[in-house]
Amino acid sequence: MKAIAHTQACPITADNALIELTIDKPQPAAHDLLVRVHGISLNPVDVKVRENMAPEGAHRILGYDAAGIVEAVGSEVTHFKPGDEVFYAGEFMRPGSNAEYQLVDERLTGRKPSSLGFADAAAVPLTAITAWEILFDAFKLNEGDGMGEALLVIGGAGGVGSILIQLAKKLTNLTVIATASRPDTIEWVKKMGADHVVNHRNPLNEELKALEIQPRYVAALTGTDQHWDAIIELIKPRGHIAMTDDPQDLNINAIKLKALTLTWEFMFARSIFQTEDMDVQHTLLNRVSELLDNNSLITTANHHGGEMNVKNLLAAHEFQESGRAIGKSVLDGFK
Questions:
Q1: Which class for 211: exposed (0-12), middle (13-18), buried (19 or more C-beta within 10 A)?
Q2: What pLDDT is stored for residue 289 in this prediction?
Q3: pLDDT-above-70 percentage for the chain
Q4: What is the tens place of the pLDDT at every residue in 62-92?
Q5: The Enoyl reductase (ER) domain covers which part of the protein (predicted)?
Q6: What are the structural domains, with CATH classification, of the chain?
Q7: In whole angstroms, how far apart are CA 180 and each of 57, 97, 145, 239?
Q8: DSSP letter assigned to residue 330
Q9: H or E element in which residue 288 lies
């Protein structure tokens, strides 16, 4: 089968930053599905791994979102059968979705929304799992909770921010404030359903004072180092911060006075450590699929890069790194 991989930690401008390979088709075991990949999407983790993590072997196949058709199943599979259309975010430690075929654990896989094509469906899983875990695992909200409280989403036009805004508006009663700074990103977060938009190029504590809203919840999806002091000032006492980026120098003692809770969200934790509750990702992806099919949510795909090949995947990585990406960038599978 064909696949695209990286062979060294390198910038996207390096020679052979991504290369095409021909390798054997994998065979499913136990809970595995063998999926023919028909659509993928890019995430910041693709860029971070390519730039910073040399493969342990000769190469590493990237890709952490996909949609496709089940071709074969392992001996312990109960959720799916050959011919089923699925979508998923895969596992951090296994070969990724930039390939014709991929193995994925059924417990991390959901039914593909029937209303979406494969590429549009592939835009959703990783970010939806992350957003769901922020709302319902980290913040410990139940559906319908949040009346009289507010959520600040820092980086509202990114992949996670785009679906987090939607989930919070559809499944909770939180007031949602999103950050955006350009006319196109402001328009996008409003389309996602944000009640208010503030500019993250300004001090966020001042932006929130102007709104006269003090959020109890903050999703710090980008620029946490830059906004840390402002977050501590603007959040309610006994509030909760969930972050997904990689801040280098946080003054953790600053959260003590307000008795704040800080959670680091990483949606691959369940699969890396094979937790007993891995199947919750299967359940939540099926719920997200239903919400997409009944038009409660919309896909966050916003840039289509064509079919899977080295040239188009390189361009997608470059666009992901450019700072201009809104929502998710997607590609079709190999032709």
A1: middle
A2: 98
A3: 100
A4: 999 999 999 999 999 999 999 999 999 999 9
A5: 14-331
A6: 2-124+269-332 (3.90.180.10), 127-264 (3.40.50.720)
A7: 40, 30, 25, 22
A8: E
A9: helix 279-293
